[in-house]
Write a structure and sequence with these properties.
mainly alpha, 11 helices, disordered N terminus
Length: 283
């Protein structure tokens, strides 16, 4: 592998690796939480602790101290942005980073196809849309597998650990009390407003982080369903799933059901402002 080239996992006979796909989930969630300023909030919290500006007990202080001590081992802001660009095609990567420019179209095509399949009522439409969705899933899986190899897996493990560590710090009642907050996400908003030029849309980015993780985990779990030889139903639902609520309260998931996939796609479309029929423009 030379000149920044990547293995062509979409070609016939090349296996799509579920674990590669699974590694992209924490990276996608991390990119969304980056927009929410979660990592910057953690840094501001540690700085306030270092300057003696947080009236907290020893338990809360120990979590902050541990986070501070591990700083040299974590990915830097530039490292994270390069990773997001390489894996998800987001802007902000440094020169020389091979950006995944195909991801966004493949992502929207799959999510829109699942939404259309979820809402299809008659059998002829379901059969047609199922095959379109299966093809969309196969193409997205190949792309995610290609970008989730090598160093990406290890970076995903580190990012998931860091996010969980930050959320644990923010969940401490002493930290929440110090900022007059009722939960971890209010701490994020308070610090962002006070120190970081304003809070982001918390509902939007928390929902994108959670729903995106669900979608990617489902793809990793179900690679056999949409292989070239795949047959039968792609997703099994007793009734259509509609967008009922946003953030589920859990960022990382392990084994989402078909209903969880449908719900995640509806949630993603609702908060991203993407029309459910966008797949028609990407086929």
């Amino acid at each position: 592998m030379t000149n920044g080239s990547l293995p062509d996992l979409s070609s016939t006979g090349v296996e799509v690796i579920a674990e590669n796909i699974r590694a992209v989930g924490p990276i996608y969630s991390s990119a969304m939480l980056e927009e929410l300023k979660l990592f910057q909030v953690a840094d501001q919290l540690v700085a306030a602790f270092q300057n003696g500006m947080l009236p907290i007990n020893r338990s809360a202080a120990r979590n902050l101290y541990q986070y501070w001590r591990e700083t040299p081992q974590r990915l830097t802001v530039a490292d994270r942005k390069n990773l997001y660009s390489r894996v998800l095609g987001t802007p902000g990567g440094e020169e020389g980073v091979v950006s995944n420019r195909d991801f966004n179209d493949l992502w929207i095509r799959f999510i829109s196809s699942v939404s259309e399949l979820n809402r299809a009522s008659d059998v002829p439409d379901q059969t047609r849309i199922t095959e379109e969705t299966r093809a969309a899933a196969r193409d997205l899986a190949a792309n995610l597998s290609q970008r989730g190899y090598g160093i990406t897996y290890f970076a995903a493990v580190e990012l998931q650990k860091q996010i969980n560590q930050i959320l644990k710090m923010l969940a401490d009642p002493e930290i929440q009390k110090a900022y007059g907050a009722r939960d971890a996400w209010q701490v994020v908003d308070e610090i962002a407003n006070l120190e970081l030029g304003g809070a982001a849309n918390a509902t939007r980015y928390r929902t994108l982080a959670s729903s995106g993780a669900n979608i990617i985990a489902w793809i990793a779990k179900n690679t056999r369903k949409f292989s070239i030889s795949g047959r039968g139903p792609l997703i099994s639902l007793k009734r259509p799933i509609t967008h009922s609520k946003n953030f589920t309260g859990q960022i990382f998931v392990n084994s989402p059901t078909d209903a969880a996939l449908a719900s995640a796609c509806e949630q993603w479309l609702a908060v991203s402002g993407t029309a459910a029929d966008s797949a028609d423009d990407l086929t």
